[in-house]
Amino acid sequence: MSRRLSRPSSAASHRSSGSSAHDSEFKVECKAAYLSVYDDLKDVISSEYDLSAVLQQSGRNPTRKILAKYWTDETDYLTFDDFVNICRREHATTTDDLMKAFRKIDINGDGYISLDELFRMLTTRGEKMTRDEVQCMIDEVDENRDGKLDYGEFCNMLMSTTDECKKMSMKMMEKKERKKKRPSNTPRRDDMPRPSPRVKKDKVRTPVGSRSAKVSEPSNLRDWTHTSSKGCFFIDADEGGQIISHQYTLDLADDTNVFITMQPNRIGDAGFTDDGPVDTAIYVLREGSSSNKIVTFTEQRDSKGRYCVRCDLSAGRYKLVPFTTGCRLYERSAGRETKEVKLIKQDKEDKIVLSKTFKKALEDIFDMADLDGNGLLSREDFNWYNIRTSGEEVADDEWDVVEGNIELERGEITKTGFIHLNQMEAEDNDGDTDDLWVTLTSMGFNKSLVLNQACPFKLDVYTEDCRDASLEVMGLEAQAVMLEDAVCETVTAKGEVSKVKGMKDLSVYTYIGDARATVVVENQSYSKIRIQLDCSRSKNVVSNQRDLNYTLTVPSNTTVVGHHLIPRDEKAEWIVRCQESILR
Q1: Where are the alpha helices (DSSP H) in 239-348?
Q2: What's the CA gap between 522 and 506, in Å, rounded?
Q3: What region does 438 belong to: left with phi over 0, alpha with psi -120 to 50, or beta?
Q4: Strands 256-264 and 454-463, bridge-based pairing
Q5: What sign does the CA torsion over 10, 13, 18, 24 have?
Q6: Is the same domain home to 365 and 468?
Q7: One domain for residues 310 and 239
Q8: 323 in a domain, yes or no?
Q9: What backbone torsions phi and psi does residue 568 show, to the nearest 5 degrees?
Q10: Phi, psi torsion values for 229, nearest 5 degrees
Q11: Structural domain includes residue 183
């Protein structure tokens, strides 16, 4: 039988002096700290190192003397109950503790902690830090910018770290509890076959076009209720090069079988290359009172080249979030530009007119903005276009100007009217094209008027048993904000896992679907790590990262995407190889 923590005889009678509510809060904090390091309360603390880690997550800063008191030569493991009892005895960091620590670090006793003093302390115990990292710590809390810390700044530094640990612990506990409560149709990692630690093998995939379609269109699709919308992916320079897109809500009045398809929409050559189309997908998330839960996503193509999914959905509201890896979209945006195209010229009467090339680009923009696909721009369509190009909604007085000056049909803007609207703008600016270029670049055009930083798409939703299905555009948002957790969740549920050598709390998951592969890193430790993911030995692939040999930083207790990979040439075989290594 394993030896556990030997309790003093007074332990049974030891109780928190606070109220029952305070005791309940204390236990929740202990539980959160424990689950930030372990997956289950039944897991045991198996080393002094892990004991230190879980105590730090609870807001305590155990010394070697304290650790030695609870982890002796005879200790094999400690349980969660043991941990709670230790937390009862060892209080969290107080101002008195901080004052004692401050005096120990302040070697010359001048009432301040210098870079040298803090660096000396942080490089003789615990995790080794560089001088630059210590300087960054000081800079973050050095309110008076004198290059050193007084007592107040020192307290703020340590207490903010303690609070951050507690917040992170609570967040991790909530995340793990949500996973346990997931509906049965949600992919669960524990339900998947778990491969043994990875043996390096080539992951060879056959050409995409040579595979038989695994999703087929329902034979009676004509009888289903159909609703659709267009949308677009944009590379947004204002968001650091992130991909943003239209977002949707789907309201179902009844339980129904659903068939959802998504594919790039041909406007010029946008979204298509000689090697294949820009990859697209739709993630379906169930709206809930506390969080959105992933239900399914379009994973495979049908015989028509559409990304599809067919499933049963219960009545309610869902978010439909478009997704692309960005691999080909980033490649297109990096293409060479020729000289800047002229947008306007003057006719024989010195009147400002739009160039033929500019008019063609405006026709393409009109088709991109026509989200309902009826050949006209409703006020709602025009509003989304205005939000994309100016960041503002269309005010009533602005719409009055539109109605009073340009061609409308059934109260909506025609293509001729839209071009005339831009003609008016050019005239109002006396030939200055700066505002016109803002519109063009916002919609994904480069200076040569090539649509290389956007990919239009078409989304179709068919419902078999629900005659009252509503699909609405609800926003333009960065996909990373909406989908990081959902993508990681599907990859960790369905991908092949390997533990990184020498890092028991670090795992790398590789998932390879029909037309894309994703590498995800899960860091369950209490400190951030830097990991290099080298996919340069892969064959016939292109990544969403600028370099196939990519280094990323993974914060503690988080899961992040390292690489998305798709075949460069879909007509040829492609091989995925990923070698990971820790950078210290």
Answers
A1: 327-333
A2: 6
A3: alpha
A4: antiparallel
A5: positive
A6: no
A7: yes
A8: yes
A9: -65, -45
A10: -155, 150
A11: no
Q: Which residues contact 77 (CB under 8 A, 6 or more apart)?
A: 2, 4, 44, 45, 46
- Sole residue written with tokens 């533990």: 499
The torsion of the CA quartet 171, 172, 174, 179, rounded to 10 degrees, works out to 140
Using the structure block, give the residue that is written with the tokens 């087929």: 216
Which pTM does this prediction carry? 0.64
Whether residue 409 sits in one domain with residue 273: no
Q: Identity (one letter) of the amino acid at 134?
A: V
Cite the beta strand spans of 105-206 per DSSP E.
Answer: 203-205
Q: Which residue has the tokens 């339900």?
A: 191
Three-state secondary structure of 186-203: CCCHHHCCCCCCCCCCCE
Contact assessment for residue 311 and residue 184, using Cβ atoms and an 8 Å cutoff? no
Cα–Cα dist 316/160, whole Å: 41
pLDDT digits (tens), the chain, 584 positions: 334 444 433 333 344 344 566 677 888 888 888 887 777 888 888 888 788 888 878 878 788 888 889 998 888 889 999 999 999 888 776 666 666 666 777 677 777 777 677 666 655 544 455 666 667 666 666 667 777 767 666 666 655 555 555 666 666 666 656 555 544 444 444 433 333 333 345 566 667 655 555 677 888 999 999 999 999 999 987 766 889 999 999 999 999 999 999 998 877 656 566 567 888 999 999 886 445 678 888 878 887 888 899 999 999 999 999 999 988 888 777 666 668 899 998 877 888 899 999 999 999 999 999 999 999 999 999 999 999 999 899 999 999 989 999 999 999 999 999 999 999 999 888 888 999 999 999 999 989 898 888 999 999 999 999 999 999 999 998 877 668 888 898 899 888 998 887 788 899 999 988 788 999 999 988 888 999 999 999 999 999 998 999 999 999 989 999 999 999 888 889 999 999 988 86
Question: Does residue 561 lie in a domain region?
Answer: yes
Question: Which amino acid, 66?
Answer: I
